[in-house]
Amino acid sequence: MTQYTYWFRDLLAAGKGPDWLFQASFDPGNQQLLTKTLRAIQPLGFQHYYANQHMCPIHHTICQYDLWVDQHNYAHLIAQLEERDQSNRYVYHTIQCCQQDLQIVRGYGGYPDQHGQAETNIIYTLIHTPGLILTQWSISYGGITYPYEELTSGTSITDLVHYLE
Question: Of 80, 102, 123, 139, which one is least surrounded by beta carbons within 10 A?
Answer without folding.
Answer: 80
